[in-house]
Task: inverse folding
């Protein structure tokens, strides 16, 4: 866990079954597999025994294969879908036990959501779409219009307030949905693939905006994405889901460098590791290796990343020496090991996972 | 009996399906029982004549009950009557206080402001045409009657449709009632209505309401029910109350279908004016009725044309108002 | 003649009680006495008149004076033949309930109406007396209009048009039951006029001149007649003969209607009741062997 | 005149908008001209009575024209009559050949197969109830009449609605015609219809058609027009022909709205049975008519209830068939 | 151009203006900017003077900012949107001049499209959705069902044929749309962000499938994506659009390494270059540099990529020698230059663009 504080959002033993009747739930609780349940009862397992604690100010990323239950998870948090079993707590209040009016209040003031399908109102223009939740929350007209305009500005659609949704491109619609979620200024923000339809430039801008916002107001964000680079970039922690279950939760490099199983490894294979592989993670810290080192020309810090190590390595003729902040030697990186880490992220990962030098 | 068995086979062949209710364990035996009882009755009775007839007794008992109602609820009926009459009289007086050129001008202007210039031309020329046919006064009377009934109908029907869309239970209860309202011949309740409200506009307005309200209820209900789940889901996530959801999202999105309902209500109200004239309402319906009493289909047709013109004018104006309503609801 | 050759006689089954009873009674005699197959076709006045001149039906038992203009307008007056009277002693006039008359002894004739008009004012009558007019389209509507002018009552009476005879009866009967004041056009003999105690306002005596002038006088006694499609004259002369003789007198008519109402009976039952109760009356319209045959058939009716 | 000016001001205040037609340069002067002409006419005429009346002349000319039609087109009318009568007679004969227990059984079975077991119970018990009221024969007659008219109506209305949805022009032309069909009082054309088709079921069926067809046309049209553009775009990209587009995509997607139209058509057809009885059609409508002629609202109500029951049965079965149609069109 | 052959799809001088009337078109033809036109007339410029030639078997990628006109472009190709001005030719036949029936034939047999918004038919189950265009093309029922099932298998939804679209997650819907496009087996395939809602694992699988398919049947594909890595991975050529115009077309490394302007540079900034920067693109081929080289221990081929160069560089102590396939020395790469290319893709790109060594 990278962020500190008591849990803002806590999910306990959450199950969701899509079924016409109650069939299959018992099977799910007993732990039968999704396929078996679907075959026997026709019920689809959406979520199975999900337990998450998210602290205030944390940006929590959820990843997983298409259809693994990510959207179902965030929908269960604000109860757009009623969970079959389990509890969701928000700042010490149990959402799953709220009465209708309490839930409404919570949705207005605490929980904003950005939808994968955008969910724009076709009968309202862009500005009115963004202002709608503010209207619902009872913000005065001038105030909400200003906030909506600001949010549109933020997503680069300041000029489009007067257009109707059907006049926008896919990515523009997505940004309107995003602006709407941001304009609500709730402490918790649920974002279901908010950037999926965006080009890299706008996407990077918006990631930066999000991080800046996060820096400033410390929201609690549940962020669904398919892009591991994005996840690593913005996330404080990443959860990987499969078939409705959470298979691993951890800090980005944890997940990437220490995948819990082959599924997570495959999943994280494509990430651009160079910014994440540190000297510490590939160094040889065995006694023998440390023993032979005297030449201190090629010293690197233990948290230097691959992109910093390589230039050093290129100009070196002998293994790099890794020191901690106190200046003590903690390991060495033979150049051929560095070269291997370069060409094969996977090898590096494997090496680290196995705790010994790559062959 | 062979024909019935053949029929079952046929139906199954035709539909290619097993009974849909077959899932419940008790349905098959109960059905066999049912058919069995029918055939036993058939065996004992003469096959092509039903064994007994209690119709006239029951009918008579209803008559007695209606008399009782008349005797005991007349203050209520009087109150209803007073309200409706007050509305109608005020409206008619206002229209009569205006002379015909002012009326036509005003209607044309309204059409222009709310609908289009073409519509204004249509309103003006069709009303002038009616005036040249000597139907001006009848037209005003019908106009007043219809404005009152359509306004009342929409005020009743749209909220009712919205309400029905919110509850499957209510919808299920309402559906046969609406079917009944639309198909129970108005003649049936017109005569008791005379007993309660006397000859005149009041029973006419009530009968028209009963007949004209259902389509708008149904279509409002349908329009709201078939909205895309994704849009509603998003609206729900803002923490909208039921009312906000309806006013800000559901109703504006359902407007095209609601408008179709309002259109049907308007037309059905107008299709009742002849029947209204049977219980004492005046206007174009009376002209039709009279022309036909004299076997003058030509004159009946002219008065009928008047009804059609009034229908088109009122419909277009109502539609424009509804659209405007949508625009208002859609904007922040 | 051979039974098979006899044409089917189609009766217009008009939708009010007197006609329903006498149509069934006459048809019963035609079928069981004269041996013609019969059929009833239901509809309203206008449709059935149209049907009669098309030949869709062949016998209409009640042609009211109101329908005279339709007959006058026929291109070929021989399309239909008017036979005898079917209902007799018909009167038309303006009536009030007797209890109103009793409470206001001064209200005797139409000329007293301006003085007593406040009795009949209602919420929707615009301060005038509510006058229930005759059914729109009937000749009496026109006549009543003329009378109002002739009596100078334009500012006294607000004419309310009932859309049908049934509506007129219902308004009268329910108002009477409540004991309220009622003023309007009525005719007789009908069940309401037979069962309710009504007072007929006095009017100037009927005269040819007045009737052709402003019509400011009483209605004449009217005749309700039987009409047949012209082919029937050749195809079934004995039926035509029988219909010429037919007469459904006022007393019989009202008695039948009251019996039907009191016994909650159908018109078929009422017709049989009439045939059984008044054999002497109808036997006079047919030859004795025909009457015999009818009585035989009647004996089998339960 | 002050009132009109006030009105204009009022309307503008009420609507908060300038005239929508104001864009066209000629509309303002033309409107002024129009209002001007009206006021000049008003000046010369007595203000509250229209100056001339040509109604009776025109009416009479229409009568003459109708006579001409009757004289010259009778073979056509005869042919139409023959077809409708053939259908009705066959159906009635078939139903009469079945005895009442078999009929009730068959209807209950159909309801079961197509709708649900509850519906079967409703059908059976409501029909039995009608039989105990002595209305069995009338019910059969009405059933036959309605099955024929509703089938014809749907066969006419749905294709027409589909067609209207394909062309804005056609839609614009059709709309006032449909308004006219729904509001022109049927009495007006019933009497000439007798001249053309004789007393009996034929004019009744035709009048019912005229009245019952419009709602299904409108709602089919609306249902198809309000489909989401994205789905249609995808279908278009497959190179579908117009017909494929309609059959495989538009109609199945519009089914809920089309069903609402079919429901309205069914109910309106049934609301016409009393009027049908005025021109010689038998059945429950005639029973209602009779009861009211005798001022027996109780009996009228029972027959009316019969109409309502028939309406509900036919409606539910039609709806189920439509849904089935959708399923069939939806699956490959 | 990397693929050979005559153009299969040719777009000439295509303009598209979204306007209620004809206003703005003249302005667009005269070259006024999108913003100006929108401000003056309210018309939105969708496309402006687009000219593209795509050869048979080429996979042509279109990229650009959200709202730049990508979807509009592909819609104009199969005339779901009528272009305002310009022509589109398919195998020598002018699509823009086709009669309705010809166009229909072309859509059935030649032009399949995968939609950004999926465009599934809500009333048909998944299998019937995929089979629908085949039904339209008149394929017999067993044949089309088999083809549809195969296509579903391909996108990993073999089990879901009987489900209705509303029971699927966003990514699953997208794959159904994709399967539908593939099942049509047309020579030309227009794909509008076909993978945007997919997770990296499935996405990689499907990219592989697409490339394999392409290998096997040589379709002509117009492929819209926001993911430059994806573009580089699958594309034969890449076009970059801005405000309805094409600002650059070229082979992937062309576009990445030689961006036409700062816009393209910013756009391509995030791409993972190591697989694309070749020895030839960063070597110093000046006379002086070549002159001094004698030591031939550290020789690399000119088309070796960065990921191969770095290990060589790590073990070298002097500049790498770059040779062509014939073995002739064509340039040298000083180690510090290699190091720079490593740490800063952008610098490397800039260097290449300027045609001289990175400082
Ligand atoms: N129907 C329309 N009416 C008006 N403007 C439209 C319409 N459709 C698209 N546009 C405009 O055309 C421009 C290009 O839209 P297009 O959908 O082609 O963008 P895109 O490149 O596909 O974007 P994205 O990556 O976000 O999907 C946008 O500015 C959009 O607002
Ligand atoms: N309404 C529903 N009825 C039945 N099954 C459903 C329903 N909604 C979702 N599912 C099923 O639940 C599972 C999880 O769906 P969910 O939408 O949460 O996936 P996801 O992780 O968001 O996928 P994606 O990345 O593709 O959006 C899927 O197998 C889906 O088929
Ligand atoms: Mg999802
Ligand atoms: Mg797009």
Result:
């Amino acid at each position: 866990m990278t962020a500190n504080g008591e849990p803002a959002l806590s999910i306990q033993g959450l199950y969701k079954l899509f079924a016409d009747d109650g069939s299959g739930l018992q099977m799910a609780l007993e732990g039968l597999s999704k396929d078996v349940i679907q075959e026997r009862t026709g019920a689809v397992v959406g979520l199975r025994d999900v337990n998450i604690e998210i602290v205030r100010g944390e940006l929590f990323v959820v990843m997983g294969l298409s259809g693994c239950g990510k959207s179902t998870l965030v929908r269960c948090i604000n109860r757009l879908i009623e969970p079959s079993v389990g509890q969701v707590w928000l700042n010490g209040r149990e959402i799953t036990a709220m009465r209708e009016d309490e839930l409404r209040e919570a949705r207005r003031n605490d929980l904003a959501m950005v939808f994968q399908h955008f969910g724009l109102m076709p009968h309202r223009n862009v500005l009115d779409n963004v202002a709608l939740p503010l209207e619902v929350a009872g913000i005065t007209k001038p105030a909400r219009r200003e906030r909506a305009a600001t949010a549109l500005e933020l997503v680069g659609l300041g000029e489009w307030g007067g257009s109707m949704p059907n006049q926008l491109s896919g990515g523009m619609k997505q940004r309107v949905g995003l602006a709407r979620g941001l304009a609500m200024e709730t402490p918790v923000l649920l974002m279901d693939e908010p950037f999926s339809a965006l080009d890299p430039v706008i996407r990077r801008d918006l990631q930066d905006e999000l991080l800046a916002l996060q820096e400033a107001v410390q929201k609690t964000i549940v962020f669904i994405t398919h892009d591991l680079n994005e996840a690593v970039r913005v996330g404080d922690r990443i959860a990987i889901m499969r078939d409705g279950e959470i298979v691993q939760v951890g800090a980005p490099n944890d997940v990437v460098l220490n995948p819990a199983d082959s599924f997570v490894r495959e999943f994280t294979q494509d990430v651009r590791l160079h910014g994440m592989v540190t000297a510490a993670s590939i160094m040889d810290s065995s006694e023998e290796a440390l023993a032979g080192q005297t030449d201190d020309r090629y010293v690197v810090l233990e948290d230097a990343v691959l992109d910093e190590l390589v230039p050093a390595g290129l100009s070196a003729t002998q293994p790099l020496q890794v020191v901690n902040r106190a200046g003590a030697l903690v390991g060495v990186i033979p150049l051929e090991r560095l070269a291997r880490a370069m060409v094969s992220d996977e090898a590096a990962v494997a090496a680290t996972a196995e705790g010994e030098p790559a062959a | 009996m062979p024909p019935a068995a053949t029929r079952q086979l046929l139906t199954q062949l035709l539909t290619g399906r097993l009974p849909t209710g077959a899932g419940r364990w008790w349905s098959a035996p109960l059905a066999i029982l049912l058919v069995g009882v029918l055939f036993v009755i058939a065996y004992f009775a003469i096959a092509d004549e039903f064994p007994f007839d209690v119709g006239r007794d029951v009918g008579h008992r209803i008559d007695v009950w209606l008399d009782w109602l008349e005797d005991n609820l007349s203050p209520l009926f009087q109150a209803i009557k007073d309200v409706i009459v007050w509305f109608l009289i005020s409206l008619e007086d206002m229209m009569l206080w205006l002379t015909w050129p002012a009326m036509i001008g005003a209607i044309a202007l309204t059409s222009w402001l709310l609908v289009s210039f073409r519509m204004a031309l249509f309103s003006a020329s069709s009303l002038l045409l009616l005036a040249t046919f000597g139907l001006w006064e009848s037209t005003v009377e019908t106009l007043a009657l219809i404005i009152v009934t359509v306004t009342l109908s929409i005020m009743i029907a749209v909220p009712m449709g919205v309400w029905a869309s919110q509850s499957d239970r209510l919808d299920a209860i309402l559906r046969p009632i609406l079917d009944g309202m639309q198909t129970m011949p108005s003649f049936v309740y017109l005569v008791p209505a005379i007993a309660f409200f006397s000859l005149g506009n009041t029973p006419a307005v009530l009968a028209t309401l009963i007949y004209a309200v259902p389509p708008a209820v149904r279509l409002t209900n349908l329009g709201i029910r078939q909205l895309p789940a994704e849009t509603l889901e998003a609206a729900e996530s803002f923490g909208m109350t039921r009312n906000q959801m309806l006013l800000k999202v559901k109703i504006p999105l359902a407007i095209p279908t609601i408008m179709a309902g309002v259109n049907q209500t308007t037309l059905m109200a107008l299709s009742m004016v002849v029947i209204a004239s049977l219980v004492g309402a005046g206007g174009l319906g009376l002209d039709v009725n009279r022309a036909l009493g004299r076997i003058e289909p030509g004159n009946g047709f002219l008065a009928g044309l008047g009804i059609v013109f009034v229908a088109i004018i009122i419909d277009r104006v109502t539609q424009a108002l509804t659209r405007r309503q949508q625009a208002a609801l859609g904007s922040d | 003649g051979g039974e098979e050759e006899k044409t089917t006689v189609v009766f217009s089954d008009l939708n009010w009680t007197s006609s329903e009873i006498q149509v069934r009674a006459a048809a019963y005699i035609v079928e069981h006495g004269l041996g013609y197959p019969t059929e009833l076709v239901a509809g309203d006045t206008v449709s059935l008149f149209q049907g009669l001149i098309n030949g869709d039906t062949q016998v209409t038992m009640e042609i009211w004076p109101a329908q005279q203009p339709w007959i006058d307008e026929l291109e070929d007056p021989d399309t239909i033949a008017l036979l005898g009277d079917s209902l007799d002693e018909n009167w038309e006039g303006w009536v009030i309930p007797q209890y109103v008359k009793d409470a206001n002894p001064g209200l005797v004739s139409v000329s007293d109406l301006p003085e007593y008009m406040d009795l009949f004012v209602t919420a929707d009558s615009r301060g005038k007396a509510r006058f229930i007019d005759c059914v729109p389209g009937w000749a009496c509507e026109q006549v009543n209009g003329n009378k109002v002018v002739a009596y100078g009552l334009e500012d006294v009476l607000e004419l309310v048009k009932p859309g049908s005879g049934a509506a007129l009866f219902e308004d009268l009967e329910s108002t009477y039951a409540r004991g309220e004041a009622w003023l309007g056009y009525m005719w007789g003999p009908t069940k309401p006029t037979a069962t309710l105690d009504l007072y007929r306002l006095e009017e100037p005596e009927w005269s040819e001149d007045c009737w052709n002038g402003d019509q400011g006088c009483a209605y004449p006694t009217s005749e309700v007649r039987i009409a047949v499609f012209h082919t029937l004259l050749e195809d079934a002369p004995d039926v035509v003969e029988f219909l010429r003789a037919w007469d459904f007198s006022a007393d019989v008519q009202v008695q039948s209607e009251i019996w039907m109402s009191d016994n909650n009976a159908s018109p078929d039952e009422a017709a049989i009741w009439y045939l059984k109760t008044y054999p002497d009356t109808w036997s006079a319209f047919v030859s004795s062997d025909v009457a015999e045959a009818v009585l035989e058939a009647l004996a089998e009716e339960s």
Q: What stands out?
A: The domain at 73-329 of chain D is CATH 1.10.3720.10 (MetI-like fold). Residues 1-25 of chain D have pLDDT under 50 and may be disordered. Residues A 70-71, 116, 192; E 169-170 surround magnesium ion (ligand 3) (CB under 6 Å).
